[in-house]
Amino acid sequence: MTNKHDLEKIVSEQILSDPAAQRKYTGGKCRTPSGKYETRLREYIHHHALTKMLTLVTYLDRAKQHQILNDDPCLFDKQSNIKSSDAVLASICRICFARKELIVNHMSYLGITVSHIQNPLDEYEYYIRNLSIDLKDGVRLAKMVEILTGRSVLTEMRLPASSRANKIHNMGAVLSALHHEGVANIDDVTAAHIVDAHQPRILQLLWSTIVHFQIGRLDEAVVTEEIESVKRWIKQKRCSSGVKVHCEVKLIEENSMELSSSIEVVLLKWCQAICSFYNVPVENFTESFSDGKVLCLLVSFYHPTLLPPGDILPTAIDLQAKLQPGAKMDDKILKVAFQNE
Question: How many of the other CB atoms lie within 10 Å of CB of 114?
Fold first, then answer.
């Protein structure tokens, strides 16, 4: 990626100077001409720099409008007071001309216009680090709904969502869109639940959305085949290691599962198969997933370089399982375990 120093060098050598013009007015005998040639060179460089700057502004404006880069980065620095191509021209005119309208009107006569304006949504970072905190303003969830449904939900967002009223409004728009799409089991989820970081309701909303938009698209046969493949891999791994352990993966019977569809049964069996490799039992999608460890193990199983098993910390459930009957857990250890959840 081009750094700031490289950009400064390009501006200095290609925009604010012209080696060919310098050679023309100096005859190649010196670096700076004198007398009338110095005046002519200065006037030429001013004209050259202005032309290059206006060309650059126009080109970047068109490039942004047509989104020629795949990741579509922001055109202006987030900390800058300038957020539009028109404002850039105004800034140039304050230096070169008495009024902004002179250059803007002249460019419009030539059929050259700029229109890009960088708004707060362009600068928004959609990366999620904490489900409880990062979903409060509703913007990330609105982006998710747009991707899943194609509905224009982000246009209804109030930014910046620094006040509770704006957050409630944003989440209301998200929930309304999900209800319109027919997502089930979210009637008791309110905008206040998400804004107030109510974790059970947040997980309920996310899981219900996943079930509605993704679970139905899964092929049970493919998932079942993957389960058998995982079981064979675990058996081979354990038996080849020489450790005397039972190599079969024990799965919970279907009649013991309180699930709404056959695909959910298959998914739970898939989770059980993978987590059995780590000797972690999975009985349901609620309590077994409550401390986040099962999700970490699922990721680690397929992408151990992204999430090494050693980076997955013990939780209160792990400590309670190891605790001898009648023994009392140390408060400090228990506190650390809860912090890992």
Answer: 22
CA within 13 Å, CB half, 209: 22
* 76-125 confidence digits (pLDDT tens): 888 888 899 888 888 877 776 655 556 666 677 667 778 888 888 888 88
Q: pLDDT tens, 258-316?
A: 555 688 889 999 999 999 998 888 988 778 887 788 989 999 999 999 999 888 888 76
Distance of CA 148 to the CA centre of its chain: 15
Instruction: Quote the CA–CA distance of 25 and 58 in Å, as a whole number.
Output: 30
Distance of alpha carbon 159 from its chain centroid, rounded? 18
CA distance 62 to 109: 18
Please say whether the beta carbons of 178 and 145 come within 8 A.
yes
Structure-token pair, residue 98? 């008495």
Q: Are 197 and 136 in contact (CB under 8 A)?
A: yes
Residue among 194, 50, 62 at smallest CA distance from 131 = 194
Calpha distance 122→324 (Å, rounded): 55
